[in-house]
Amino acid sequence: MVSAHRLKYMSLVVLVFQTTSLVLTMRYSRTLKEEGPRYLASSAVVFAEVLKIVACTFLVLMENNFSVRAMSQVLKEEMVNKPKETLKLAVPAGIYTLQNNLLYVALSNLDAATYQVTYQLKILTTALFSVSMLGKKLGIYQWLSLKLLMAGVALVQWPTESGQESEQKVLSAGVQFVGLMAVLMACLSSGFAGVYFEKILKETKQSVWVRNIQLGVFSFIFGSIGMIIYDGERVKQAGMFQGYNTITFIVVVLQAFGGLVVAVVIKYADNILKGFATSLSIIVSTVISYFLLKDLDPTSYFFLGAVLVIAATFLYGCERKPASSSTIKV
């Protein structure tokens, strides 16, 4: 038996690895220069949903003692015989699909460290939607943490002064703006979809894995429609898996199974441990972006903003226990 103390620190390692590796590999895959076309983000989103459905189906099978008949009965009862309940998942599924595509846009235009810090604004959007949709009340430390969070993100995005502004710098600023808008929209969609999904889970006693299968089916449908609309011609010309390589497959697997791993691990991690995971992830992303990817030139504003965001992450967890793992969308 693994001791609870050791299990907590194993959880920390897993959380840091999942959070950091997905961001860095996704960023690397979107900036890697190779011959031929770059892989389609819409294709990667659809492929990840297929893997999620397969993984959650296997977990439902485990819950039913590996009885295919029992699993089929559960899925039929919960998904086919309750169409109204199933259709409720279409809303968060559509939003999650949009969010996943936005993350590819964000990491195609922002360095990993800036993305990591800015994406913590999802704490703000989740808190505001929790107050408005679930009637939750925030304590004084949590409201203070949200103000620190906004100040920190603003400092990270603070423009650097320059006597001369070349065409290359203007182009760089335009690219960064696209990335910033993408990550802000992703934060907004993450907050709303997460709270909406939590509300649905609290209204029923259904298995979280069954819910994620329903969510995955809708996400697959919406993702496929988006891929046909925006990349249909390219798919016809070179196929859905054009531009795929080893790094691409790693990104898809991390995206598909990352949430699943976190959902299992998170129950062993308290708020302080999750704060450490977020902080370490930001630090690791900054170091790798600067030394290996060479796409980050940190300023004093960036470091001050990152410190404020890390402090806000810790402060927000001071008054409220972590959400149940059942509220995690994988």
Would you write up a description of this structure?
The chain is 77% helix and 0% strand. Helix 1 (4-31) packs parallel to helix 12. The protein is built from 13 helices and no strands. The protein has helices at residues 4-31, 41-63, 68-80, 83-87, 90-109, 112-118, 122-134, 140-156, 167-203, 208-238, 246-265, 271-293, 300-316. Residues 321-328 have low confidence and may be disordered. It is mainly alpha-helical and 330 residues long. The relative contact order is 0.21.
Q: SSE layout and pairings?
A:
Layout: H1 4-31, H2 41-63, H3 68-80, H4 83-87, H5 90-109, H6 112-118, H7 122-134, H8 140-156, H9 167-203, H10 208-238, H11 246-265, H12 271-293, H13 300-316
Strands, count: 0
The tally of helices reads 13
Instruction: Please identify the structural class as seen in this structure.
Output: mainly alpha
Amount of beta strand: under 5%
Mean of all residue-level pLDDT scores: 85
Terminal CA distance reads 27 Å
Unreliable stretches:
321-328
Q: What's the helical proportion of residues?
A: over 70%
Radius of gyration: 20 Å
What is the 3D shape? globular
> What composes the largest sheet?
none
Give the gist of this structure.
The protein is mainly alpha-helical. It has helices at residues 4-31, 41-63, 68-80, 83-87, 90-109, 112-118, 122-134, 140-156, 167-203, 208-238, 246-265, 271-293, 300-316.
Keywords:
13 helices, 77% helix, 330 residues, mainly alpha, single chain, 0% strand, globular
